[in-house]
Write a structure and sequence with these properties.
The protein is of the alpha+beta class. The chain is built from 17 helices and 9 strands. The strands form 3 sheets. A 4-stranded antiparallel β-sheet has the order 1-2-3-4. The chain has a 3-stranded antiparallel β-sheet with strand order 7-8-9. The chain has a two-stranded antiparallel ribbon with strand order 5-6. Strand 5 and strand 6 form a beta hairpin. It is globular.
């Protein structure tokens, strides 16, 4: 058995299934490596009653080193030898913990640190602006599905809405709404699962929050795209939206990139000569699971849009946010104005532009693997649904086209009048 230290942890390879290595010095101290590449320190022991239990010390990260985990394992070993049960003590402590305390630990955890920058900013806002005000004072172990439903209703009905000044020329405008309520409860589910509440023990799992209707709404015609781009030009010229906001929306429509990928895009990610955006694993949704960068191809129009942005240092945002905002550009409010003025479908959000591009790729004959690569999906089945949509769309187009022909086929011409015959005597 190896000694679990920094060099051993960093050299551990990614397995096909969960793999454990046990320390040669501290009995029960181990390293768990998952197929996703994540590494966590564990402590395996038996209680006085002979039950085998596995205590998770924490994930390997900058805030939990191998040496720190070894010290914690030694403390746990001494506690077990003195007749203690670390897992039971952890459960007792958790019962007296409020959800606000759970949220704070989650925000400081290695699990949260693995998320992309834009996702962390969004999740932190949902926790601090929606979840803490509605259920933060409740004890985690006493939370019920009814409590979660009440929180969902409060967020949906705008009872957590606020408009606060956050600094010089900066404001935090929180509106709430059904979409915010859905995403907040989904985040709550994830936090409780991280805390150890799985299956039926997680009250958020028992609450139906509905579905995101906008994901099924797309721009189906060239006329809709034309209205979108014409509206962006008009609103930008009239100074009703900032150029950076308008250009970010244009890039999303042209590339099918996710909103967060473009809003938080930095100059270090862009290669204008090769017409590529390369996002490291930490900067895109599927990267934390695949460990691979995301490559986004840029059509000529998109390269021109990026080229006209004010140049900056490698760590600067490509699309410059408003002064005092303290982060990447926020596009939701701008998009709502553009969508209404351009008379686009009511249910379509910025994510709908991503689905629109994928749908039109499928209509034009792209295969599922091509769509998967272009949009950065992790599973082929996700891209396959656009193929089904395209097949249905083609059928509908064929039916509409054939209707005119069928109508012509069913039109029977009037019989010609027979000429009168004259009898010549």
């Amino acid at each position: 058995m190896p000694k679990i230290n920094k060099s051993f942890v960093e050299s551990a390879s990614t397995p096909e299934k969960d793999a454990f290595s046990w320390d040669d010095e501290i009995k029960g101290f181990g390293l768990k490596v998952s197929p996703s590449g994540s590494k966590a320190f564990v402590f395996q022991y038996r209680t006085k009653q002979g039950k085998s239990r596995r205590f998770t010390i924490g994930r390997y990260s900058d805030t939990l080193t191998a040496d720190q985990a070894r010290k914690r394992a030694k403390d746990l070993r001494r506690a077990v030898e003195d007749g203690g049960d670390p897992m039971n003590e952890k459960q007792v402590n958790r019962q007296a913990e409020t959800l606000e305390e759970v949220f704070d630990r989650y925000l400081a955890s290695a699990k949260f640190a693995e998320k992309a920058d834009s996702t962390r900013a969004t999740d932190r806002g949902r926790i601090n602006r929606h979840l803490k005000p509605t259920i933060g004072r409740l004890y985690a172990d006493d939370l019920t599905a009814e409590d979660v439903r009440k929180a969902f209703n409060h967020i949906r009905d705008g009872k957590t809405a606020t408009n606060q000044k956050t600094g010089f020329r900066g404001r935090a405008i929180v509106r709430g709404g059904e979409g915010a309520a859905r995403m907040s409860v989904r985040l709550l589910r994830a936090v409780l699962t991280w805390e150890g509440y799985t299956g039926e023990r997680n009250p958020a799992n028992n609450v139906n929050v509905g579905s995101d209707g906008e994901r099924d709404t797309v721009l189906e015609t060239g006329e809709e795209y034309a209205r979108l781009f014409e509206t962006l030009i008009t609103m930008e010229n009239e100074k009703r939206i900032r150029p950076a906001h308008a250009d970010a929306i244009r890039i999303i429509a042209l590339t099918g990139a996710r909103r967060g990928e473009i809003a938080s895009l930095q100059w270090r990610h862009v290669d204008q000569k090769k017409a590529l955006i390369t996002l490291p694993p930490s900067q895109h949704k599927t990267g934390r699971k695949t460990g691979k960068p995301r490559i986004i191809g840029l059509p000529t129009a998109a390269v021109e849009i990026i080229a006209r942005q004010p140049a900056g240092d490698p760590d600067d945002f490509v699309f410059i946010p408003s002064k005092g905002s303290g982060g990447a550009v926020t596009l939701s409010a701008t998009w709502r104005k553009v969508r209404v003025e351009a008379k686009l479908p009511d249910g379509i959000g910025l994510h709908g532009l991503r689905h629109s591009l994928a749908s039109h790729m499928a209509i034009n004959g792209a295969q599922a693997a091509e769509i998967m690569t272009a949009l950065g999906h992790r599973q082929l089945s996700t891209a396959q649904r656009y193929i089904h949509w395209a097949e249905d769309a083609r059928k509908g187009l064929a039916e509409r086209s054939a209707a005119h022909i069928t109508a012509a086929m069913n039109t029977t011409p009037a019989p010609k009048a027979k000429p009168k015959l004259e009898v010549v005597k």
